[in-house]
Specification:
By secondary structure, this protein is an alpha+beta fold. Helix 6 (about 155-180) packs antiparallel against helix 19 (about 555-570) and helix 9 (about 275-285) runs antiparallel to helix 14.
Length: about 700
C-alpha cells in the first residue's frame, strides 16, 4: 500500500518527490514505491457561487439580498478542474490507504488540501507534514515526524470561517452597493477599513492649513544651540516673539548651565516576520509588498535559502538554536564571510531577546536555512532581499551599538538653548547592517546632532550670532506601502475607546500572508494609485467609504473577526457562533445600504463611448498606464486609453462575428423574426451576461 502526498504547488511537489525517491512521472502526479506525490494549483476547490444555490441569483438584484445559505457548498474551480480530477482519482485509488497533507504549513495551506478531500468525499486517514523550509534535510525530518491530521482540525475550522465570512460579507455588500448605484463598487472585511485609513489620511492632508513658525539658533563658537521653552518646544508661532528672543541674545555672554552625558546601548533589531520584511523592503529596495512576497517565495521554494515566508513571528523557538552555526556557515561567502568568521568560532547564544517559544505559533522568524549560498544563481532582486534577511540574521549575534549622548543647556539672558551630540563607542551590530531609518517629517522638535567638543559646566561663552529661521508646518505624510502595512498590523491606534483598543491588541487587519494581496486589489480596482512610493486614493475610493456601512469601514469589527479566527484555530472559540455573528452583521449592513439616500457620482467620465454599450467610459489609472473602463457594471468593457486602431478594428471584427452568430441563431429559432434591432439588442445582452459571469468567477 502507498501514501498519497498532496502538495500545494507543482514545484514543491517535485522537490518532495525527489527526496522521497519518486521518479515515475505521470500526468498530474509523480509515483514511487511507497509514495505518490500530487499537487494543487493554488486552490482546486472553492466556495460555490450564489447561482449554484439558486439560478435567480445569477442576476444581481437588490431584492435577493442578503444571500445567507444555511450550509455553504463547495465547487471545483473550472480553470483547474483537470488537475482536480487527477487528485480525486488518486484519492480513491485502491492501493492508497493513507493521505499526507504537505501544503503550506498555515491556515490557507490547510484549507487548500482539506477542501479537495471534502469535495472528493474521501474518508481515508491522513497525516500532516509541518515544515518551515524546503531543504532536503527539512523534508526528510518532516516525514520522520508526521503529525496526526486531527491536530490541525481547529486550524481548518478557522480557515473555513475566514473564507465563509469573506463570502457572506464581501458578496452581499458588493452586490448591494453595485445594484444601488449601478457601479462596480467592491467591499470586503479587510480591504474596506484599509482603504478607509488611506482616505482619512488624504482628507487630513487636504484639510490641513499650513502655518508659519520660527525657530531661533545661537552660535557659541565651537557649538550651536536651539532655543526651547519650558515645555521643550522650539516652534514659535509669533514672529515678533522670535525677534525679541534673538535681540535679547545677540552679542550677550552665555553660560553653560548643565551638561548631561549618558551611555546608550541599542540592542540588535528583532528578526523578520513577513510584514516587517515587506516594510523594510519597501523602504530600502522600493519593493511593493506583493513583490517582496513573490521574490521571497522564490528564495524559499526555488533556491531553498530561507525558511517559511508567511510567518507572523519575529522570534525563534529553542529547538532552532543548535542549528544556528550551520545556518551561518551556509551563507559564509561573498560579503558575509568577514562578518561571520568572528562569531562562529565562539558558542552561539542569542538569548531570550530572540528565542522565545511562547512567541512562536506556527512558524518562527524568517532566517537562512543553511543551504550553501551561491550568489551567482540569484537575480538582482533576490540578492537584495536575501541581503536584508542575512544581515538581520547575522546582526543577532553581534553586541549592542554603543554611544555616548551629550546634551548641553546654555543660558543666555534668561533664555535657554539646547545642543546635542553623539560619540560612537562601539558600532556593534551596526557594523553589519545600516538599516534605513525613516525620518518623521512631522517632528521638528528633535535636536540636530553635532560633534560637541569637551565642555565644562559653568563655562562662559560669547554669542557669535543668533539667527531666526522661518518654516511651515507640514501635513501628515501620505501612506506608503511600508506605513500602510504598519497600520494594518496595528489598527488599535485608530480606535478611541481604550477597552476596545486593548481587546484587539495583537490582532490586525488581515494576516501577513494576505496584506500584500489586499493592497494590490485596491490598486487594480482603481481605489488607489501609486505615485512614487505614495498611495493616493481616487474619487471612487472617497465615495465608497461614504457609501459603505460604517461598521465595515472601521478596523474595530474586522480586527475582532481576525482575533476570533485565531481563537478558533487554538480551540478557544466556536465556528458556529462566529458564523452566526457574521450573518447578523451582513443583515444589518444590507439594511443600512438599502435605507441610505446617498448617491454615487463618478467624476472621471471621459468623452469616449464604450464600443460595447455606447455609454461614456471612465478614465482610470491602471498598472500599465491610463485605461478606459465602462461605467456600466453590467457591461464591464475596458481598454487602454490610447488603443491602437488595429486593436479596436480587431475587437470590432470579433464583435461583428458574435453578432453574426447570434443573428443566425435567433433568425433560425424565429424568436425575433427579422427585427435586426431586437437581434442586436439580444447580442449585447448576451455579451453583458458573459462579461458579468466572468467577473463573478
Amino acid at each position: 500500500m502507498k501514501s498519497l502526498v498532496i502538495a500545494e504547488k507543482p514545484s514543491v511537489a517535485r522537490e518532495i518527490a525527489r527526496v522521497l525517491n519518486c521518479n515515475n512521472k505521470n500526468h498530474g502526479y509523480i509515483e514511487g514505491s511507497k509514495y505518490v506525490v500530487t499537487w494543487a494549483l493554488g486552490h482546486l476547490v472553492t466556495l460555490a457561487e450564489p447561482e449554484d444555490y439558486d439560478q435567480k441569483l445569477k442576476q444581481w438584484r437588490m431584492e435577493d439580498l442578503p444571500m445567507l445559505p444555511d450550509k455553504m457548498k463547495l465547487k471545483v474551480i473550472r480553470q483547474t478542474s483537470k488537475q482536480y480530477q487527477v487528485v480525486k482519482k488518486l484519492l480513491h485509488r485502491s492501493d492508497i490507504d493513507e493521505l499526507i497533507i504537505a501544503t503550506d504549513a498555515g491556515r490557507e495551506g490547510e484549507l487548500v488540501a482539506r477542501w479537495i478531500i471534502v469535495q472528493a468525499k474521501c474518508h481515508k486517514p491522513f497525516k500532516r507534514l509541518w515544515i518551515s523550509s524546503q531543504t532536503d534535510s527539512a523534508i526528510q525530518e518532516g516525514f520522520k515526524n508526521l503529525k496526526p491530521g486531527s491536530n490541525y482540525n481547529k486550524l481548518y475550522d478557522a480557515a473555513v470561517c475566514r473564507a465563509e465570512a469573506d463570502w457572506v460579507v464581501g458578496l452581499n455588500v458588493t452586490r448591494a452597493l453595485s445594484c444601488k448605484h449601478n457601479a462596480q463598487l467592491n467591499a470586503g472585511r479587510v480591504q474596506t477599513p484599509t482603504l478607509a485609513m488611506v482616505v482619512q489620511r488624504e482628507r487630513e492632508i487636504q484639510e490641513f492649513k499650513p502655518q508659519p513658525y520660527w525657530t531661533v539658533r545661537a552660535d557659541f563658537g565651537d557649538y550651536y544651540g536651539d532655543w526651547r521653552d519650558s515645555q521643550g518646544q522650539s516652534r514659535i508661532f509669533d514672529q515678533e516673539k522670535a525677534r525679541q528672543i534673538a535681540d535679547r541674545v545677540q552679542g550677550q555672554q552665555a553660560r553653560i548651565e548643565d551638561i548631561r552625558t549618558e551611555r546608550k546601548n541599542e540592542a540588535p533589531p528583532l528578526l523578520y516576520d513577513l510584514t516587517e520584511l515587506q516594510r523594510d523592503a519597501n523602504r530600502r529596495l522600493n519593493f511593493s509588498a506583493q513583490k517582496t512576497l513573490s521574490v521571497l517565495q522564490r528564495l524559499y521554494e526555488q533556491h531553498k535559502l530561507v525558511t517559511y515566508p508567511r510567518t507572523d513571528s519575529r522570534y525563534l523557538s529553542s529547538d532552532i538554536v543548535p542549528t544556528l552555526k550551520g545556518r551561518l556557515q551556509g551563507i559564509a561567502t561573498g560579503p558575509y564571510q568577514a562578518m561571520i568568521e568572528p562569531i562562529v568560532s565562539k558558542p552561539l547564544n542569542p538569548g531570550s531577546r530572540f528565542v522565545d517559544n511562547k512567541k512562536v505559533s506556527d512558524h518562527h522568524a524568517i532566517i537562512p536555512t543553511g543551504e550553501k549560498l551561491k550568489l551567482s544563481e540569484l537575480s538582482l532582486e533576490e540578492k537584495g532581499l536575501f541581503d536584508l534577511i542575512s544581515r538581520r540574521f547575522i546582526a543577532m549575534f553581534y553586541p549592542p551599538y554603543s554611544y555616548e549622548k551629550t546634551t548641553i543647556s546654555t543660558l543666555v539672558n534668561s533664555e535657554r538653548f539646547y545642543s546635542r551630540g553623539r560619540v560612537v563607542k562601539a558600532k556593534g551590530w551596526k557594523a553589519v547592517t545600516q538599516l534605513w531609518e525613516e525620518k518623521d517629517t512631522r517632528s521638528k522638535e528633535i535636536l540636530p546632532e553635532q560633534s560637541l567638543k569637551l565642555q565644562e559646566r559653568g563655562s562662559i561663552k560669547g554669542v557669535k550670532s543668533c539667527n531666526i529661521n522661518r518654516a511651515m508646518t507640514s501635513p501628515p505624510p501620505r501612506y506608503t506601502e511600508a506605513s500602510i502595512l504598519t497600520a494594518m498590523e496595528n489598527p488599535g491606534k485608530f480606535i478611541q475607546d481604550k477597552k476596545l483598543r486593548e481587546s484587539i491588541s495583537g490582532s490586525g487587519l488581515g494576516t501577513p500572508a494576505t496584506r500584500a494581496e489586499i493592497i494590490e486589489k485596491l490598486i487594480s480596482s482603481f481605489y488607489m494609485e501609486r505615485k512614487g512610493k505614495q498611495l493616493v486614493p481616487t474619487s471612487k475610493a472617497r465615495q465608497l467609504i461614504e457609501l459603505a456601512p460604517e461598521s465595515l469601514t472601521s478596523p474595530v469589527l474586522t480586527a475582532q473577526w481576525e482575533e476570533q479566527l485565531n481563537l478558533i484555530a487554538r480551540g478557544n472559540s466556536s465556528r458556529k457562533q462566529f458564523m452566526e455573528s457574521i450573518k447578523s452583521s451582513a443583515r444589518q449592513m444590507i439594511k443600512d445600504i438599502k435605507e441610505d439616500q446617498s448617491e454615487y457620482k463618478p467624476d472621471n467620465v471621459s468623452r469616449k463611448k464604450c464600443p460595447a454599450c455606447g455609454k461614456n467610459m471612465l478614465l482610470v489609472q491602471g498598472k500599465k498606464g491610463k485605461m478606459l473602463v465602462c461605467q456600466d457594471r453590467s457591461c464591464g468593457h475596458r481598454q487602454p486609453e490610447k488603443a491602437q486602431e488595429g486593436d479596436i478594428f480587431k475587437k470590432n471584427r470579433q464583435q461583428d462575428r458574435v453578432n453574426q452568430r447570434l443573428l443566425k441563431k435567433y433568425s433560425d429559432d424565429g424568436e425575433f423574426g427579422s427585427n435586426l434591432g431586437e437581434i442586436l439588442k439580444a447580442a449585447l445582452e448576451e455579451k453583458s451576461r458573459k462579461t458579468q459571469n466572468e467577473k463573478q468567477q
